[in-house]
Amino acid sequence: MGLEKKSALLEDLIKKCGGCAVVDGGFATQLEIHGAAINDPLWSAVSLIKNPELIKRVHMEYLEAGADIVVTSSYQATIPGFVSRGLSTEESESLLQKSVTLAVEARDKFWDKVSKITGHSYNRALVAASIGSYGAYLADGSEYSGNYGENVNLDKLKDFHRRRLQVLVEAGPDLLAFETIPNKLEAQACVELLEEENVEIPAWICFTSVDGEKAPSGESFEECLEALNKSNNIYAVGINCAPPQFIESLISKFTKLTNKAIVVYPNSGEVWDGKAKQWLPSQCFGDDEFEMFATKWRDLGAKLIGGCCRTTPSTIKAISRDLKRR
Fold first, then answer.
1. Global pTM value
2. What is the mean pLDDT of residues 176-203?
3. What pLDDT score does 284 carry?
4. Helix crossing, 313-325 with 52-65: angle to 10°?
């Protein structure tokens, strides 16, 4: 199935959902709720090594909550990261493949169950392979600053992402999700890499923002979206892991800067201290606020809406309930 047909799958899903599909929520958050210890440079990806069945359980919980798209547990899963833990390259690649397999198995098991129920309100979900930013691999908070240092150039970023992208594509997801991209350089690297590798899976690229106006690097989103707008590989662009208070204005900004579909999945509003490795208290959205704002975000132009860090299946259930009843 080529790029055009796979993009049509996503378009059809969005239409079935009434114009806006629901993405799942915080994966690491839900792992921690179940007792997983993920204070680790691999973050949620450590569960691929320690407890893959828990990963499948979390996918099932988000599907039950109404997610139309489930995102794999590979955000911080990289070959160098796994190798640094003593795994071989082959074992590392196998774990990346497993992140997709677990999501696909959960999706298929769930759909096999609910599709037999008359009058159910679910859609057959799509699986998006998560590809975290270079800063996520560094685990130093630089995905929220965009400051990768003078030695990191376009070629280095493409080399960093290349093999992981190849392995994830080979595993057969429906979509690719590049997440928390903090600067124009990495966005351009992702676009060029998709073209160089002749990838025929539609992708979205999500930036984050720490001020609600620009990318973490200080670059304007107009600059950051320049290469993305020209790419047939990019189906959607948007924002993830930014405070929900920023989302309304950012959707309005993006609708003026792109003709791509817009995807947003903010965090709860808590602030991550990348150096101290902890969440800092801040103005937060609860499930009620997410439910209230989801239709507003949709009406402003978002085609894909979900949650990121510190959101849970109950958040996604609230978003899904709100979008499906209006």
1. 0.95
2. 98
3. 72
4. 30
Two tokens, residue 178: 């590049």
* 238 sits in which H/E element: strand 234-240
Please answer whether residues 263 and 303 qualify as being in contact, where contact means their C-beta atoms are separated by less than 8 angstroms: yes
Helices (H), the chain: 3-16, 27-33, 46-50, 52-65, 79-83, 89-114, 134-138, 154-171, 184-196, 221-224, 226-229, 247-257, 287-300, 313-325
CA dihedral sign of residues 161, 84, 129, 97: positive
Rounded alpha-carbon distances, angstroms, from residue 162 to 37, 62, 85: 29, 29, 20
- Tokens, residue 288: 């009620």
Cα 50 to chain centroid distance, Å, stands at: 22
Binding site for Zn(2+): residue ranges?
241, 308-309
Cα–Cα separations (whole angstroms), residue 73 to 31, 51, 226? 10, 12, 29
As annotated, the binding site includes 241, 308-309
- Per DSSP, the three-state class of 198 is coil
